[in-house]
Amino acid sequence: MFKKIPLAGIAAACMLAFAFPAAISAQANTHTVQKGESIYKIAKEYGVSTHQVQAMNNKSNASIFPGEELKLPVIPSKSEKDLLSRLVEAEAKGESYAGKVAVATVVLNRVESDLFPNSLYGVIHDGIQFSPVLNGTINQPASAESKQAVDEALAYQGYGRESLFFYNPDKAQSSYLSSKEVTTVIGDHVFLR
Question: Record's InterPro entries (predicted)?
Answer without folding.
Answer: Cell_wall_hydrolase_SleB, LysM, LysM_dom_sf, SleB_dom1
